[in-house]
Design a protein that fits this description.
elongated; 4-stranded antiparallel sheet; alpha/beta; 18 helices; disordered C terminus
């Protein structure tokens, strides 16, 4: 009897006061789940912030050595000379401006009226001197400073880049073999060098690519007979107009001087070589196998609707032929020697030891970014091997232009930064144009991939201008001298004898 009373009391204490067993089990299970949830939450939160913390573009190395208390230049004019690594420099300007939402002085098409002397009304959205603040100008033009000054602010930093005229001639011959009549007639560059006057006619269009191309791009008469007095005047004009002239053969040293002149972070001048040509041709020579060739064939351009493959140009030169090219391009050779000397004087002022240190840092940074951003160890590849058609480089002439592929698996921020570094010039211009003029971009259906190619006036393939620009002869005569053009928003542009005058108007 006593035993039964104690048993009932124990059950009452356990079940009544402390609670049933199932309640304890449920409580323990709830505590275990809560603890596990907290533990997993900490793990997930840590993993979500790791990519941003480890992003190579946000590391201290991105800034580079201290530049003191200077402020970055944001008003910049770059004269983009031909075949001088200028596409790589323009990519830096595009990246810097896009990252900071700066306004570009973009062309209506893809060049600022080249090869005609630059006119301010070739800038998309131009509305008169200083009416709109433009920050960066850098597309191909034939320099004309009075017109440039109508577009760019008074505190603009002007710079350009030059190259040894012999190396420039080799590159020009490869790119413009089918464009410049003087090159087209010659079997090889050596044949042209032996007797340039046999092939060169100054009256023929696009022959400016064949003689004193730097002098021409700087806005001077490239067919003028050489004299020391003339060459000195040209050098003085360039020196007055440009605060810095870079040298293509010393590209990394040039980037260090540019970085300090502009007060830019190191990453702003780190780049991968763009628009570079393939040095050793593959088995499928010519442009027939390139995407441009296929697109042109589909459009029925050339022959029976397809481009015939042509042998690659012969660029071999003897030392005697190299000397003949220097004489043929005597004005360019004078400029190159003068500004190459000025360039090394700037390096002496900078300090050779400091220059070597900063060049080493730049190259290390380039290698680090290549490992993160690029497939195939950062090696440039042929256009047809690039899976993303939107970053395939434009193909020009009889040589293949190489590009890059992005590393797979990049986080969004890193992929965006890497993509900016390898985006080809034409596609990048289209991206900036669409951002800067969204109304015009919406008004015209986008050109997808390689469709819609056309033969440009110079003989190269380009997509049609996607701006709302139209041109027609006034009076309906094919030979009329007055041409009416319309800007992206419908403002009327009149061109009389190559002088453009703006008139306000509306599209009808």
């Amino acid at each position: 009897m006593l035993f039964r009373r104690r048993a009932r009391m124990l059950r009452w204490l356990v079940c009544g006061r402390v609670g049933p067993v199932w309640m304890w089990k449920a409580l323990l299970l709830f505590v275990a789940i809560a603890f596990a949830g907290q533990l997993l939450g900490v793990i997930f939160n840590k993993s979500s912030v790791q990519p941003a913390a480890r992003s190579i573009f946000s590391s201290p190395d991105a800034q580079g050595p201290s530049l003191g208390s200077c402020q970055p230049h944001t008003h910049i004019m770059f004269l983009k000379t031909h075949k001088t690594a200028s596409s790589t420099v323009l990519n830096m300007l595009y990246r810097f401006g896009e990252e900071r939402d700066l306004r570009f002085a973009l062309p209506l098409g893809y060049q600022l009226g080249y090869p005609l002397p630059f006119n301010a009304h070739r800038v998309k959205g131009y509305r008169g001197p200083r009416a709109v603040e433009f920050h960066i100008m850098g597309n191909h033009m034939r320099f004309n400073k009075p017109e440039v000054e109508k577009v760019m602010p008074a505190d603009t930093f002007y710079f350009s880049i030059i190259r040894d005229p012999v190396a420039l001639a080799e590159s020009s011959f490869a790119y413009y073999k089918e464009v410049a009549p003087a090159f087209r007639k010659a079997k090889g560059l050596g044949d042209f060098a032996d007797d340039p006057k046999k092939y060169y006619d100054p009256r023929l269009r696009n022959n400016h690519y064949a003689r004193n191309l730097l002098w021409f791009d700087f806005g001077m008469d490239h067919n003028a007979n050489f004299s020391v007095a003339l060459a000195q005047r040209g050098k003085a004009m360039v020196r007055r107009a440009f605060k810095l002239v870079l040298v293509s053969e010393y590209f990394d040293q040039s980037m260090i001087l540019l970085r300090h002149a502009l007060c830019w972070p190191l990453d702003a001048v780190v780049s991968f070589s763009l628009n570079a040509r393939q040095q050793k041709p593959s088995s499928a020579g010519g442009i027939g196998g390139s995407w441009v060739g296929k697109a042109a064939a589909a459009a029925g351009v050339g022959g029976r609707g397809r481009l015939q493959a042509k042998p690659l140009p012969n660029l071999s030169l003897t030392e005697d032929q190299r000397e003949k090219l220097r004489q043929w391009n005597a004005l360019d050779w004078y400029l190159y020697k003068a500004f190459n000397q000025t360039f090394w004087e700037e390096i002496e002022k900078f300090g050779r030891a400091q220059m070597e240190q900063e060049v080493a840092l730049l190259r290390m940074r380039r290698d680090d970014l290549a490992r993160v951003c690029l497939r195939d160890g950062g090696k440039p590849v042929e256009a047809q091997r690039i899976r993303d058609r939107n970053i395939r480089p434009f193909q020009s002439g009889l040589v293949k232009i190489l590009g890059y592929e992005l590393q797979p698996g990049l986080d969004n921020a890193t992929r965006t930064a890497c993509l900016r570094m390898i985006r080809p010039e034409i596609q990048y211009k289209d991206v900036l144009d669409a951002k800067q003029f969204p109304r015009a971009a919406l008004a015209v259906p986008p050109q997808a991939g390689q469709q819609g190619l056309m033969m440009a006036a110079g003989g190269s393939f380009l997509r049609p201008d996607t701006s709302r620009t139209a041109a027609r002869q006034v009076g309906g005569e094919a030979g009329g001298r007055t041409v009416e053009e319309r800007d992206w928003d419908g403002s009327r542009l009149k061109k009389n004898n190559q002088t453009v005058v703006e008139e306000k108007g509306r599209l009808r």
